[in-house]
Amino acid sequence: MTTFAFRKSSYSNGTEECVEVATNHPDTVAIRDSKRPEGPILRVAPAAWTAFQQAVVQTSSRISRR
To answer: Is the pTM of this model over 0.70?
Structure first.
């Protein structure tokens, strides 16, 4: 069984709506909802996670310039 070392996103508000991410395995980034730690875990390749983060930053930049 894989053990992930989850940490909360620095953008989470600390109470609800928190995303936890684990990057302690070289071939997998694991993502879960902190309200349901026993719930499902989304596993993606590190390259996919990086692409997702870049897309979020680019989209946020475009929205904030409007």
So the answer is: yes
**Distance, CA of 42 to CA of 20 (rounded, Å):** 10
Q: Is residue 19 within 8 Å of 39, Cβ to Cβ?
A: no
DSSP 2: -
Structure token digits, residue 58: 């680019």
* 1 belongs to a structural domain: no
Instruction: Determine the structural domain holding residue 27 and report its residue range.
Output: 7-64
pLDDT digits (tens, 9 = 90+) for 35-49: 898 999 999 999 999
Write the pLDDT tens digit of every residue in 22-33.
Answer: 999 999 999 999
| Total structural domains within the chain | 1
